[in-house]
Specification:
One of its GO terms (cellular component) is phosphopantothenoylcysteine decarboxylase complex. This is Coenzyme A biosynthesis bifunctional protein CoaBC. In the C-terminal section; belongs to the PPC synthetase family. The protein is α/β, with parallel strands linked by helices and 227 residues long. It has an eight-stranded mixed beta sheet, sandwiched between helices. A two-stranded antiparallel sheet has the order 2-3. Bound molecules: cytidine-5'-triphosphate (CTP) and calcium ion. The site of cytidine-5'-triphosphate has 16 residues, from helix 3 and strand 9.
């Protein structure tokens, strides 16, 4: 089908989703990154498209197939991801599911670093990356009507998620328990709590596709039909 021409409760709505890790170069052959399969973000993009939304998926390097009916913009670094997100605006909703690297190497090397004969190891100086969720959530003419972030936590899940929601200025946080008993990176199971301004909804353990479908339905209910 053509993008954005489908029927469904999100027909006529523009949506941005971030997914996957980012790769921050050390030199042309090495990088630092977060662990992320992109499963959850890609499933959210697919679920929103299935409800009729026109979806742009900005994704770091993953092995997931491109979801059907979604415009996919591949990126490497956090700064590239922010640029690609800005280029996708305006949107009605943005869902930031990417595991963005918090730091990049302050000055990555133009040539491959070589081992020193004396055994000295290089020292990497890090610089903080832009916060994409916080940047897109900041007040302004291009701010999406609904900003959704994720909080993957191993302990004090709800407390950390409440704090993140306030700090980043987003509307909703999907708090994700990645502790030992719950969902694990790269796995299929996910135990989430949705924090909106109006309350906190504990969802039963679901696989990532089901979390995506439930989140997409929840977004569609909240937005209502496009004007
Ligand atoms: N996020 C983002 N850009 C960043 C860092 C995080 O868009 N540079 C988004 C993630 O996509 C997620 C949310 O912010 O939706 C929370 O990410 P998380 O790593 O849990 O939050 P941080 O503020 O980086 O806090 P922490 O110190 O726990 O890593
Ligand atoms: Ca982080």
């Amino acid at each position: 089908r053509r993008l954005g021409t489908a029927d469904g409760p999100l027909a006529g709505r523009r949506v941005l989703v971030t997914s996957g890790p980012t790769h921050e170069p050390i030199d042309p052959v090495r990088y630092i990154a977060n662990r992320s399969s992109g499963k959850q973000g890609h499933a959210i993009a697919a679920a929103l498209a299935a409800l009729g939304a026109e979806v742009t998926l900005v994704t770091g390097p993953v092995t997931q197939p491109d979801p059907a009916g979604v415009r996919v913009v591949p990126v490497e670094s956090a700064r590239d991801m922010l640029d690609a997100c800005r280029a996708a605006l305006p949107v009605d909703v943005a869902v930031c599911a990417a595991a963005v690297a918090d730091w990049r190497v302050a000055s990555s090397a133009a040539q491959k670093l070589k081992k020193a004969p004396d055994g000295d190891s290089p020292t990497l100086t890090l610089a903080e990356n832009p916060d994409i969720l916080a940047t897109l959530s900041a007040p302004g003419p291009d701010r999406p009507a609904l900003m959704v972030g994720f909080a993957a936590e191993t302990e004090h899940v709800i407390a950390h998620a409440r704090d993140k929601r306030a700090r980043k200025g987003c509307d909703w946080i999907v708090a994700n328990d990645v502790g030992a008993a719950a969902g694990t990176f790269g796995g299929d199971a996910n135990t989430v709590t949705l924090l909106t301004g109006d309350g906190e909804e504990g969802w039963p353990p679901l696989d990532k596709t089901e979390v995506a479908e439930r989140l997409a339905r929840r977004i569609a209910e909240t937005l209502g039909p496009a004007p």
